């Protein structure tokens, strides 16, 4: 192996870009390169022992959670270290955003980096239990980990590692849902109440990309300054790009010739943005947040010029309503109400009054759910009202929508 | 045991209180809005919309009445920090 190859390989998280099946688990259409345990050790060296300086190093590197919320890992660790109860560390590989495929791709290409990260976190925090959490339908993901265990000759090392198949549901990858499931409850999110008992069992959930980055940081290798993106164009692709790459550059690199009208950022519970507003924005989360946007778990869906954003939004909101945990009033009643308004707008069956009612219901639901699920739907609705405001006019004035191109996002109804 | 030094806990100052509702437990019965109509109203599905910020001393009494009125014990007062 040449020196340059080594350098390139530790600078990135993925072994290469992949094209995935349109929906479901991140199974690629053509086989992608999987790093074996021997290659992994050759490239990165063995897993280092945890030193007392690790937390400081994590904070110095500014490691953030890569599941979409970008919570600093240092903050989570400090909170966990303050408490004394038995600790479970979870590697979250359940990507609930129907299009997201970056975590699934990572565990297929570099499972050992993720496993190292999980063991490092478990050791550093003194965990009693380590769990790999997957969507129930991700059979390849599970097989990848099982194979990785065999490669390592693992049979319950320092900390026992379990693989758990979660349900196949939009909310099954949510950290609170996982916490509840791993302690014997249903895999549904629940509201955070301050835990007062320092001896209560606790669970810390890290996204698998976060753990892969942790495995590099613990080796005193740089945290790769790249971002993993899943982009749905004519194909669903996972790519790794530099943080300073603009959204326009990403699409050009993926073969787009014509600018889309808008982009859905972050996934089905994401934010619509007009193309002209975001084309030149860097994909770095910092840049996104400065523009009051987020790419969340790195999902991007460009909307072609001749597609109807109102129709797509109606499908998305109806999908989100169907994926409610059905636990609380605002979600159980609020989301179907939003979906109903959007369906009316999409069917050109309403007037400006529907928009007014929609706005009123958005305000009524916002911030009141037991979990953040309803907030995803209100944020999507609000951004759609802004982004498609001009086009929305043709839906409520009887001018008829001329954007007849059929766009059905995977998993949503049409 | 942890391999890292445990960070020191810092002392928190006790300040005001705020009203919280557990949306999982709440069944939209509406007793809270009757007990404290000046600070709680119901949305169009019958679920309470509660004040989000710190309660004024006058509202604290009303909030306590709402907490006590709930047959599901879905409401509680929490220290703001």
Question: If you had to describe this structure to a student in words, what would you say it looks like?
Answer:
The complex is a heterodimer of chains A (414) and B (81). Chain A has 414 residues and is of the alpha/beta class. Chain A has three domains: 3-218, 3-Layer(aba) Sandwich (Rossmann fold), CATH 3.40.50; 243-303, no CATH class; 309-396, de novo design (two linked rop proteins) (Up-down Bundle). Chain A contains 17 helices and ten strands. The longest helix of chain A has 18 residues, at 329-346. Chain A is globular, with a radius of gyration of 22 Å. In chain B, a hairpin with a 5-residue loop joins strand 2 (41-42) and strand 3 (48-49). Chain B has a domain at 26-79: 2-Layer Sandwich (Alpha-Beta Plaits), CATH 3.30.70.20. The radius of gyration of chain B is 16 Å and the shape is globular. Chain B has helices at residues 31-35, 57-69; strands spanning 17-21, 41-42, 48-49, 75-79. Chain B has two helices and four strands. Classes of the chains: A alpha/beta (414), B alpha+beta (81). Chain A binds chain B through residues 50-52, 54-55, 77-78, 81-82, 123-126, 190-191, 193-194, 327-331, 333-334, 361, 364, 367-370, and chain B through 1-7, 9, 22-24, 26, 28, 43-47, 49, 52, 78.
Q: What fraction of the residues of chain B are assigned to beta strands by DSSP?
A: 15-25%
* Computed CA radius of gyration of chain A, to the nearest angstrom: 22 Å
For the terminal residues of chain A, how far apart are their CA atoms?
51 Å
Classify the secondary structure makeup of chain B into a structural class: alpha+beta
How far the N terminus sits from the C terminus of chain B, by CA atoms, comes to: 30 Å
List the helices and strands and how they pair.
The complex is a heterodimer of chains A (414) and B (81).
Chain A: H1 3-11, E1 18-20, H2 37-44, H3 54-61, H4 73-82, E2 87-92, H5 102-109, H6 111-125, E3 129-135, H7 139-152, E4 161-166, H8 175-182, E5 202-207, H9 208-218, E6 226-232, E7 236-242, H10 247-253, E8 262-265, E9 271-274, H11 275-278, H12 285-290, E10 299-303, H13 309-322, H14 329-346, H15 352-365, H16 373-387, H17 389-396
Parallel strand pairs in A: 2-3, 2-5, 3-4, 6-10
Antiparallel strand pairs in A: 1-7, 6-7, 8-9, 8-10
Chain B: E1 17-21, H1 31-35, E2 41-42, E3 48-49, H2 57-69, E4 75-79
Antiparallel strand pairs in B: 1-4, 2-3
